[in-house]
Structure formats: structure tokens, C-alpha cells
Amino acid sequence: MVGLSAAVNHFLKYLLSLAQIIHSQQNLEEVAVPDVVEAAKDADILIFVLPHQFIRTLCSTLLDNIKPTAVGLSLIKGFGRGEGNSIELISKIIEKNLRIQCNVLMGANLANEVAEEKFCETTIGCKDKRLAPVLRDLIQTSNFRVVVVEDCETVENIVACAAGFVDGLGLGDNTKAAVIRLGLMEMVKFVDTFYSGSKLSTFFESCGVADLITTCYGGRNRRVCEQFVKTGKIEESSFEGLTKLKWLSLQDNNILLVPASALMRLPSLAHLHLQFNRIAALSIELIHATSTNLMTLGLSRNLVREIQPKLFYNFEHLINIELSGNMLSVISQNTFAGLEDTLLNLDVSYNRLTTITELALENLLSLNLAGNQLKRLSPETFKYLHRLKYLNLSSNPLYGGFPPVFPSSLINLDISHTELKILPTVLLLNLKSLEKIVLSGNQLQEINEGTFQHLYNLTTIDLSYNIIERIDIGVFVNLINLYSLNLCGNKLTLFIGEHFNTGTGLEILDLSNNRISQLSPTAFAIHPRLTRLDLSNNKFVEFPSDFIKSLQFLKWLDLSGNMLHHVNEFAFSQMGRLRDLDLSNNRIESVDELAFHNSTQLQLLDLSNNILETLNERTMEGIFRLELLNLCNNRLASLPETIFDPSRIRNIEKIDLSGNRFNEIPIRALQRQSASLLNLKIARNQIVEMFTQVIINNVKKLDLSENPLNENAIRGILGEAKVLRSLNLADTGIKTISRVEMPFLKHLNLSGNAITGIKSITFERTTMLESLDVSRNRLTDFNLSSSFRTLPVLQSLDISNNEVKNINESSFNGLVTLRSLKMANLANNTRIEKNAFKSLTKLRFLHAYNYPKLVYFDVQNILKDMTNLETLDIEIKDLSIGNEQLSIHTHPRLRELTLRGERLRSVLSNSLIGVRGLKLFLGLKNTSIDSIPAAFLFPVPRSTIVELDVSGSKLTSLSAQLLAVLDEREGSVRISGLNNNPINCNCEAKYLWRWLQLSSNRAPIVICANPKHFEGVTLNDLTKENFLCNRTTSTKPQMTETTVLTKSTTHEPEIIWTIAPTVQNIRNKHIDHTSKLLFVKLKYF
């Protein structure tokens, strides 16, 4: 009652102050009228001050119940949703729905200061010059000044959020001023785009810049965003006034706690998403604060260890709970008590569950238990789940510990990666409604008759990546609705039609990566609707193509990676719908004529990586629609002149002849397709001279790389192939390059030659050039600004592996459109000026490393203006690297970051502050870093998937604290390259060993470098006894033979953080912020 009384008094203070502002007391009634129609029927001026979501309802109530001459004054900020996805001003909504004129009042008017009668000013937008003074005089007081303009709206709240983030990060007033200025510019641009004709002067009124400044310093949006960043907590008053809010997402905000009192202010809340935070406990107060209308609760990827019994009592509408990626070890019978009749979807995947009791959730439709440590499921688990349709048990060490029967209502069952060795016929016996079953990644050796008996609704079976050697006859009988069957990655040697007993609707069949060498005549005849058939990487020496001739719907056939020697006459003919045929990576010596005759829809034919020496002129007979022909890496020296005659092939667009034995371009054969051939690859042949002006003058993309071209050939190409869009002359022996006469050229590769210089006239004609590769040449003088001035649209430049000594401030002049720059491995470079990159503000990809003679590389100043970077691969010449040099927060698009350099010895905990995005590749390659701070990954959002590559560094181990962080982020951080580090497998390596054991098949390879008796041994192969510190280690490593390990329920390598690492302005000092840990608990043994 005390709280309610205080709230009433506070509200009355606002009302009384408003009454004083509107000082015409003789017109102010002392009686409140609850009926809005009664209150408004005789009004001349209607003032609208209510949440915008109610405006249409109010207007429909007032329509035809007010004076036709009435006018409106709206104090409502924001927009409404118009037709479709458009936005609409609130004043326009009022005018449209009430058919009256509506004006606007906006300004720098914080409500509490107005109530306290502190001086402020506001703006009224009114185009009626007669009405304007009336409205002004009505509102204006001695401490509330009013200015009238013709138009007025406000769009500053999003800028206030940015200002709050700046305050929370402690970036200072200069940064905040910049944000406000940029925000004002965005507001101007927004209004000009969507409401052209508005006056610029309006932005200098109270409703413009004044409102912006006030909101950015004193508004609620600023305050909430600041608290998000600073504390990871939600203020109790954060959601005040949002009584109709239904959907709230607080994902990835590093939140530790959400006060129940804050959520109690959201009585209409239906969907609450708190994924990717650091919430460790769910209090009864917090949960019950949302119980009234909550339908969805998202808590995935937090640190929740326990759910109190009966926590969800009184939830009448909760249908979806997401708890995946937490640290739950137990779910008791009462965990979800109270949700027996309401809960439909439950996700507790990737926790630490070792057992699960009965779930009395009678209406549950979907249950995800994947990625736990379940060894057995009791029959009681599914006792009450009579409506369950989707069940995921994948990635659990069940070893076949399934219940006698699953719920008969299932339509989708995933039991992949459960180390299942035997598939009992009774396991699926009662699943009459089952439509999809996934059994991949197990250890099944055979599939017995009756396994899928009576599963008439089954459409998808995935048995891939087992060790299946035998499938009984009749295994798939009566599966008339089967659409997809995946048997990839097994040990099958035979596939026969007798596995089925009737015709099926099978459309996708994957038999790749087996040992099949023969097929029965009935293998495919029973599947007339097959559209996709994969037989790649088997043992076929001959392929009985007659067995697939009946497949008139077949569109995609893959026979690559077999041991075929010949393609016989009519082998793939008369296949009317076949579009894609892959015969690559076989041992094909010959292709008979008419092999593909009248396969009229064939568009892609791949014969690459065989041993073809000749082709018959009728090989391509009847494949009229062929678009791409791949013949690379064979032994062809010539082609028949008429092989591509238009009577056989009408419009082929791409031919790949790379890696053969041509000493000249087969011009007479190719000329038959000169009108349509756009892309010709003939790299890695023996071409010296060229007399092919006709074909080259029509081709748009030409690859002649790795041919020993003479000077005349090069001169002819550069001077005569005027319509080329893409040209590859890499590794062709070019020493000098003259003027390039290709006005339409977009891509030019000159890498791997002996070019020592580029003249200023070289690229005068190539004004459309977008990418240029001159890497692996002998360029020394790199002041190419005169050449680059003629390349106004160049986006990609590679100058790596040259002999450039200096890169100065004029080296890249004119390349204002450059997006990608590669300048690695400059062995003779001694100087790179920081101003060399001043014009490259649009750069997205920068590779700059391996400068052995360069003393200093000013990374900080080089990167400061490159705000669009997505990939950065750079050498560090400092002893340490941190946020000061990288300033990642100024590179919001950064997705790949690689740091290199032997001088780099340490990486600071604050280095990754500012990282955002769904994925991050992080490399610490070829450095002298010997340890990674435990707090290194703390600034990275928990929703970000991180791939960390430490190849070639000096790591001797990973600390227990860092391993605890990796364990906490299980599944979102992957480490590679540890095998290229000097790992010390002494007794202190026990934490790393244990972590590797628990990571199972996701564990990186770690090779011991020390002590001497363990050198070359894989760390994962050692045993626990090798790491006992209280005894002398054996001189001979004791290896494990077969070890089955599961996560211990007492294993809790968690870190609970107090605050994030702060930005340090210290260079060349290794600062380990693990001192900011509040609590570290490690139990590995």
C-alpha cells in the first residue's frame, strides 16, 4: 500500500503541474469524466497524450461523436504502422481516422522537469496561421515557452540509445558529441528521404536539436542502454510505462540478473528472450513476475545449473521453454510441475544431463535432449508423452540404452551419434506415424529385416556414416511414401532392389562413399521417380548404365571417384531429364561415340581428372543444351574439328581444358561455338604461340595461366582481345607489359611472372578494371600513383611477394574505391608509411604481414580510418597487442582477424572489445605468444561462433582458467593449430588433457613436444597416471587402449565474472585480467 500511495502522489504531482501550465483555470473542470465520448463531444481542441498503439481504437470511438470543426494536437512521439510495411506519422493517423486537422507538439520536455516548473521550451507544428496563435496561447506559460513552425516531428530516440552505449562503455564526451552529431545528420537524411519538403530550420527548434540533446543526456532510452553496458543488469524502472509490451528480447547483453520488479512492470509480456547471457540462477520471484501471460521463455546459452522444483507453477499460457546450452545436470519429476497441460516445446539440449526421469507433460509436442550425457532412458521417461511428435536424442552416449518403446505419436526421431551398435526391430515397431528418422554417425553394422516394418508414413531415412556391411532383403518393404534414403559413408558392397518389395516414391538416394562394385538389375527399377542419385566414391570398374535407363525423372547423377575405365556407346543416352552428370576422378581412357546421345536436357558434363587422350567427334552428339563441359586434368592434345558442331551442341558457354597437353588452342573445334562460348580455361598446358584471334575476340573470360607463352602471344592477347572481361596470365613468363588494349576488362591476373615495373600508360585503356593481381613478380619501385589514377573503379589489388622496398603516402593514391588489398611477404620492405593508407577508407579486406626487414609497423594509425574492414590479417611488430592498437569497436563489420609476427609475445585481455557478429575467425599465427589470458574471449558476444587458429605460435599449454572459459562456451569456440605449438606434456598439462577427453570428437589434435620421452605423442593418448605430480614420470609413456569417457556431473570449470576487461592504454606490457575474476571453481580430477 505504501508503494501504491507513493505512485498515486507522484502521478497527482504531474496532473497538478500540468494544470498550472494550462493556466486558464476558469476552463479547467475539477471533475474527471470517465467517458471519452462525453468528455470530447463539445471540445474545440482535442489534445492526444496516450500510447501510440491505442490511437486507432480511440479514433474509431470518437469518430462522428465530436464537432466537425474540432482540431487536434498530438503530443505522441514515434510512428505508427501504415499499409503494408510502411510507417505513418501519428498526426496523420489521427487526421485519417477522425477526418480532422491534427497538429503536433514536440520538444525538449522531460516530464519530471516540466512538473517541477523548470524552464523549458517546446515546438508546435501547425500550418494553419489562424490557429497557430490560439494553440500557442493555450499552452504557453512563463516557464514553458512555445514556438510555432509549419512542421514538427521527432526521431531522436535511437540516437539516445547510441549515446547510452557510449556512456556505458566510458568512451567520453568527445565520442558522445560525435554520435549526437552523426545522429542529427541521420535524422535530417531520414526526414528528407521519407518526408521531402520539410524545412531544415525545423531541426534547430526545440523539437529538433534541443530534444535530441536532452534525450541523449537525460532520457530513459539513454539510461537503460547505459545500464546494459555498465552492469549487465536491468534497472527496476527500465520498463516503466510499457504495460502493453508483449515481446522482449535481451539477448547477448552479458546480463547476470534481471530484477523481478522490472518484469512486474510488463503485465502483458508474452515472449521473453534472454539467450546468450550469464544468468546462473532462476529465482522464484523472477519467474513468477512473468507468469500471467508468458508463452515463450528463452534462456539458451546461459549458466543455469539448477531449476527449482515447482518453479513454473501458475503459468497458464507457457508453451515454449528453451534451455539449451546451460549447465543443468538434473531434471527431476517436479522440475516442470504446473506445465502439465500447457507446455508444447521443451529444449534442454547440450546441458550435462546424465539421467532424466518421467516428464508429466501430457501435451508436449517437441522434446530436444541432444548433446547431453545420457546413458540410458527409462520407460518412465515417456510415460505421459502421448502427443510427442519431435524427439531429438542425438549426441548422447546411449549405446543402445533406449526404452522398450517410443511414444507412438512420433513423426520425427533423431538418434544420430549415440554410439548405437545394434538396431533392434522392436525399437520402431509402434511408430506408425513416423515420417523421418535419423540414425547417422553410429556404429551399426547391419540392418535386419523388419526394422522399418509397417512404417507406412516414413519419408526420410538417414543411415549415413555408420559401418553397415549388410542390409537384409525386405528391410524397406512397404515404404511406399519413402522420399529420401541416405546410406552414404558405410561399407556396402552391394545394393539390390530386393531390399524393397514394391514400387516406391523415392526421389533422393545417396550411396556415396561405400564399397559398391556391382548392382543388381533391380537396384533402381523399383524407384521410377528417382531425381537424384549419388554413387560417388565407390569401387565401380564398369557401370551397368542399362540399370538406370528406366529412371526418366533422373536429373542429377554422380559417379565421380570410382574406377571406371570406359564410357560405352549409348551409356547415358536417352535420359530425357538428366541435367548434371559427374564422371570426374575416375580412370576413364575413352568415351565412345553417342555415349550421351539424345540426353537433351544435359547441361553440365564433368569428365575432369581422368586419363582421356582422345575424344570422338560424335562424343557430344545430341546433347543440345550443354552449357558447361569440364575436361581438365586429362591427357588431351587435340580435339576433333566437328566435336562442337551446332548440330550437336547449340550454345555451350564454358569449356575447361586446363591441365592437358595442348600446344595450341584447338581453334577449329572451338570456332563452332564462337557465338556462345563465354568462358575458356586452358591453363597448365604447353601453349607457346597463339593464332586464335577469332575465338579470343568473342570469349569474355580467358585463362591461359601456367603456359610458356612467347612475347608475340602475350602482345597479341593484350593488344587484340578487346572484348575480354577477365584474363588470367599468371605464370606465363611475362617480363614486360605494354599497354593493355581492353576497355571492358574487369579482372586481370599477372601473378607469378618476372615483371619489374609497370608503366604509366599500361592501364590507360582499362578504366573498368576491378581486380588486379601482380603478386609474385619482381616489382621494386611501387610509386604507381600515375598508373592507378586511370583505374577509377579498382576494388581488389594484390602486390604480395614482390621486391618492394618502400610504400609511401603516394603509393595508393587514386584507389579510393579499393575494397581488398593484399601486400604480404614483402621480404625487402624496410618502410611502410602510416599515411600510405589514408585514401583507402573503403577497404574491407587487408592482408599485410611477413616483413622481416621492417622495424616498425604503425598498426594503430593505419587502421584508424578503415571503418569498413571485414577481414584483417596483419603483422604486429610490438611485443604485445591490445584494444588500443586494434580498436575493434571502430570496425563493426570485422569477421576475420589474424595477428602474426615473431615479435608478438602477448595478447591483452581487452584486445577483442568491440567484436560483434555471428561468426569470428581469430588467428594467432606464427607468433611468440606462449599463453592466452583467461579473459581473452570475455568481450566476445556469447552468441558469436569463434574459430581460433594458433598455428605456429609458442603455446606450451592452455591454462585451467582459459579451459574453464572454453568449457563454459561449449560448442561456440573451436581451436585449431595446437599441434603446431611446443606443448609441454608435464604434470601441469592434466587440465588440457582432461578438457580434450571431455571434448570427444570435437577435440583438436595436440602433439607433445616436451618432455623428451613424450615427444611426438598425441596428448589424448596418454592416461591420467601420466600427470600425477607427486611421483617421477615414467620414461615410457603409458598409452590408453580403449577409453570411454563421459563428463562428470561434478565437473564445474565455470567463471563468474564481475565486470568486463577495461581498455588499457599501455603498450608492450602483458596485462592478464584474470585478477578480475570473482570466483573460479575447477574440478577436473
Structure characterization notes:
Helix 11 links the parallel strand 8 and strand 9. About 15% of the residues lie in helices and about 15% in strands. Helix 3 packs parallel to helix 4, helix 7 runs antiparallel to helix 8 and helix 9 packs parallel to helix 10. The protein has about 1100 residues and is an alpha/beta fold. Among the domains are: about 150 residues, 3-Layer(aba) Sandwich (Rossmann fold), CATH 3.40.50.720; about 80 residues, N-(1-d-carboxylethyl)-l-norvaline Dehydrogenase, domain 2 (Orthogonal Bundle), CATH 1.10.1040.10; about 120 residues, Ribonuclease Inhibitor (Leucine-rich repeat, LRR (right-handed beta-alpha superhelix), Alpha-Beta Horseshoe); about 160 residues, Leucine-rich repeat, LRR (right-handed beta-alpha superhelix); about 100 residues, Alpha-Beta Horseshoe (Leucine-rich repeat, LRR (right-handed beta-alpha superhelix)), CATH 3.80.10; about 150 residues, Leucine-rich repeat, LRR (right-handed beta-alpha superhelix) (Alpha-Beta Horseshoe), CATH 3.80.10. It starts with a helix and ends with a strand. It is globular, with a radius of gyration of 36 Å. The strands form ten sheets. It has a 31-stranded parallel beta sheet, with no helix packed on it. Strands 1-2-5-6-7 form a five-stranded mixed beta sheet. The N terminus and C terminus are likely disordered. The longest helix has 23 residues.
Summarize the structure.
Pathway: Phospholipid metabolism; alpha-glycerophosphate cycle; Lipid metabolism. It is built from 20 helices and 52 strands.
